[in-house]
Write a structure and sequence with these properties.
With about 325 residues, the protein is α/β, with parallel strands linked by helices. It contains ten helices and seven strands. The chain is globular and about 50 Å long.
Length: about 325
């Protein structure tokens, strides 16, 4: 069970007033310890796996493909007791390390922020009204979110846990693109969003054109695309996960932490109806305590592993889902 450390509205106001992340929640170093056991199971039916992949994964039309973290994450937790916060941070770090990601040192600038609050509806609404810029607003980088409709769903739909991720379009080699499109909240709802300093710190700061210098003041990029591969990819910049301690009461902390890790490490559909699949996403919808997952399932672990080892600059979402399915349910 996760206990909220908030008393009245004081902590909520403090968090909103200091939502620069570094002040909102101090990051802690992940402690070295053995990870949760990995359950090995029999061969999976590719047709069922494909349905699972399509149920779980989501992206925007503007992004076109699934994103992931590039190299380093820095998780932080606000609103929970010190013990619970460290447990969640450790679990996220453990799951990330298993995928080949690194975890930032103590004091790193958070790019995964977890907020625990007894009233997530009110808190999320206040973030949207008072600090909307962190969800949709940064200029200067080619960033996308799931769009305006998804943002309204994030803000207005009551859930035990809700999440919002911002990804950045970069060249296939990791070179950074400047934002020259001004696509915020247009078309399918793609939104420019804040790129945290920690995420933007890796890789070159600008893309070069044709191996030479571009014209002054003009963003130039090189095309590495082919018929089978694209010339860009999606790297996560920032994830905000909000836990409602009232709605999650009674759920094991380990299960909550794994749920948070899953939705922070992948762009997961918040509206996914996953009852037909063995997944941590059924934590709050399982018909009984006996059927409630207690940790990431073997399917969830396989999904994350496939996501972090698949082709990053695929041409489209269909190509990625095909590869995810092959990796999760290998031919036998």
């Amino acid at each position: 069970m996760l206990a909220s450390a908030e008393q009245g509205g004081f902590v909520m106001k403090a968090m909103l007033g200091a939502f620069a992340l570094a002040v909102l929640a101090a990051s802690a170093a992940a402690q070295e310890s053995g990870g949760p056991p990995i359950i090995v199971e029999a061969h999976r039916d590719p047709r069922v796996v494909r349905n699972y992949v399509e149920t779980v994964s989501v992206t925007s039309q503007a992004a076109g493909v699934l994103g992931r973290w590039n190299e380093r994450i820095c998780p932080s937790v606000a609103g929970a007791s010190t013990t619970d916060a460290q447990f969640i941070i450790d679990r996220i770090a453990r799951r990330a390390n298993a995928l080949g990601l690194q975890t930032g040192a103590p004091g790193c600038s958070p790019n995964i922020t977890v907020v625990v609050t007894p009233n997530s509806d009110r808190f999320t609404q206040q973030v949207y009204e008072q600090r909307r810029q962190i969800l949709i607003g940064a200029n200067g980088v080619e960033s996308t979110t799931l769009g305006s409709a998804a943002l309204q769903d994030f803000v207005n739909t009551p859930r035990p846990i809700r999440w919002w991720l911002v990804s950045q379009t970069v060249m296939s080699d990791g070179s950074i693109l400047a934002d020259t499109t001004s696509r915020a909240m247009q078309g399918s709802g793609a939104a420019s969003a804040r790129a945290t300093q920690a995420a933007a710190g890796s890789g070159p700061t600008a893309a070069s054109g044709g191996g030479g210098e571009g014209l002054s003041g003009i963003n130039t990029t090189r095309s590495n695309g082919t018929r089978l591969l694209g010339n860009t990819r999606q790297d996560f910049n920032y994830a905000l996960v909000i836990i409602d301690s009232t709605r999650t009461a009674g759920a094991p902390l380990a299960a909550i932490a794994d749920y948070v890790a899953f939705v922070a490490l992948a762009q997961v559909n918040m509206s996914a109806r996953a009852a037909d699949y063995p997944t941590i996403l059924n934590l709050f919808s399982a018909p009984s305590d006996q059927s409630r997952p207690t940790q990431l399932t073997a399917w969830d672990i396989a999904y994350l592993d496939a996501l972090y080892h698949m082709t990053r600059n695929a041409r489209n979402l269909q190509q990625q889902r095909d590869e995810l399915t092959r990796r999760i349910a290998p031919a036998s």
